[in-house]
Design a protein that fits this description.
- With 226 residues, the protein is mainly β.
- The chain has a six-stranded antiparallel beta barrel.
């Protein structure tokens, strides 16, 4: 099954065994008005059925969301695990307390359930992942709205209608881990083009022999799910 929900009550799940100390995870913090803050941090460890420890994101990155890191605040955690097959796990929990030594950490309640997404069998992931589209040397800011192993859909809010046509080959670039220096780039064939007033939407088919990069993009999409 591509995506399944599992209980953590009985001997906890095998997925946690593969979420190793030092693994990068994403956490979502939502303000009372519904404003989402997503931050990358580090998984430290856990005690089954009791609590989970993660590194607190740096205050400079948290910004105004830091004031909402309080007891019982809801937090969503997503991370990549490596077992028999690479998967992304996601779970919702609440903040139990914060620790300041030996470094600033968040103590989270152990979740009752978690979602496990298998990267290699995921059919399609809905997302809103920022990317860049490169056409004949010109680069456009874009958003990927969904992705599968065979292709994805992309939306350009501004520009591209004059240079992007069906059946041309383009490059799509993604930044890994919020790091502009760490990028993933794939070649795609444009199809299902839908121009609109200021931009364009279209589907693409991934070119062959890019499976590793495509799986990495699906992982990024799963980690950035809303």
């Amino acid at each position: 099954m591509a995506t399944k929900q599992v209980s953590t009550n009985n001997n906890h799940t095998n997925a946690f065994k593969f979420l190793l100390a030092g693994t990068s995870v994403n956490i979502d913090i939502v303000t009372p008005t519904g404003e989402l803050g997503r931050f990358r941090t580090t998984f430290i460890g856990y005690l089954p059925q009791q609590f989970i420890l993660i590194q607190s994101p740096d205050s400079t990155k948290l910004g105004k969301h830091e004031q909402y890191i309080v007891k019982n605040a809801p937090i969503t955690v997503r991370g990549l695990v490596e077992g028999h097959e690479a998967s992304v796990i996601a779970f919702q929990t609440t903040l139990r307390q914060t620790l300041s030594t030996p470094s600033k950490m968040l103590v989270l309640d152990f979740p009752d359930t978690m979602m496990i997404h298998n990267l290699r069998s995921t059919k399609r992931v809905l997302t809103a992942l920022a990317c860049s589209v490169i056409v004949n040397g010109k680069e456009y800011e874009a958003v990927m709205t969904d992705v599968s192993l065979s292709g994805c859909h992309i939306s350009l809010a501004m520009g591209g209608a004059d240079s992007i046509t069906e059946d041309i080959i383009i490059s799509v670039k993604f930044c890994e881990h919020d790091d502009e220096e760490a990028t993933l780039t794939v070649s795609c064939k444009v199809c299902n083009l839908k121009p609109f007033k200021q931009g364009v939407e279209f589907g693409v088919e991934f070119e062959a022999e890019q499976s590793a990069s495509i799986e990495s993009i699906i992982r990024l999409a799963l980690l950035s799910e809303k």
